[in-house]
Amino acid sequence: MTHERPTETAERAAFYEAIEPEGLTALWSVLGDIVTPEPKSPCVPFLWRFETVRSRLLEASEFISAKEAVRRVLILENPGLRGQSKVTTSLFAGVQLVMPGEVAPSHRHTQSALRFVLEAEGGHTTVGGERTEMAVGDFVITPNWEWHDHGNTSDAPIFWLDGLDIPLVQFLDASFAENLGEDEQPVGRPEGDSLARYGANMLPVGYEKRTPTSPIFNYPWERSREALEQMRRTEEWDPCHGLRMRYVNPVDGGWAMPTIAAFLQLLPGGFATTPYRSTDATVYVPVEGSGRSVVGGETFEWKPLDVFVVPSWCAVHHEPDEDAVLFSYSDRPVQEKLGLWRERRGNEHE
Ligand code: GTQ
User: Fold this and answer.
1) Engineered SS bond to 24: which of 19, 71, 230, 318, CB 3.0-4.6 Å?
2) Which pTM does this prediction carry?
3) Is 5 within a domain?
4) The CATH number of the domain where 254 resides is what?
5) Can you give the pLDDT at residue 350?
6) Whether residue 303 has its Cβ less than 6 Å from ligand 1
7) What 3-state class would DSSP assign to 24?
8) What's the 43 CA to ligand 1 centre distance in angstroms?
9) Residue pLDDT, tens place only, 160-172
């Protein structure tokens, strides 16, 4: 299209071959592949069934403990990116299982993580000295370089979706990690402390922003869901998103995490959205309701806890059969900071 590869001649081919061992490549032979008129992602649309992932994890729990695995996770690996541990070109997705009585030992790393709880009767994570119980639908974050360990003292397995910026950190060659050497870190603050301090529409007087990550680390499902329910009464539906909210850092109103954006949206039953595309490839988890999403022309029928991915610049529209709630995450904060983020609403071309 914009940059067509000049035709090959014997002279040119010989030249390319001659410069190869010299660590040189002719830009004109690759320009069209590296500077594309619009995103051309190797990431493809795909849907994972929770039932399948869940039963494979239970199968794995028979031969590997959370402790031995460190994190017993099945990676949701994009079929266009096999072998790379990526769900999109910049982000990781996995489903983690902690069985009753197990502990996933304490470690820390420069990658940031989000958890979206899929199935739980109990189970907890401890981050930076504070423990939080995890309930279905909770959005929990682990800022980079904070100690974190997970445990489950309930009688039932706990499953959650892990979203991490592993590929992004790998791309930047900025990975550091270490083990604490103990299964669990000491708990230094009472449960609920962060939510009280930072999540009650107040901040402690004199509080100063110290990190780019939100000081709240569990955004409880009940409160997020309640906000959507209250807001639906105004019937102000966005044609592309229904009612879509973003999880924020209460300190500055920005994204909860510096590298990952997270959203919760409500789509009323029968409300078919208008096609939408954006440069931030997005991972979706339907939490309530059923329906289908058309992603780049491919239709995915979904029900609660399935996971599907929409690649960069791939048009998506949703067709909920009944009221539906979708959680989603993407690398939008990074693209915004770099001045790269773009969206296109509707069917317009160019
Ligand atoms: O819970 O710390 O899915 O370090 C991948 C890497 C989870 C975690 C993952 C991790 C974790």
Assistant:
1) 19
2) 0.97
3) no
4) 2.60.120.10
5) 40
6) no
7) coil
8) 22
9) 999 999 999 999 9
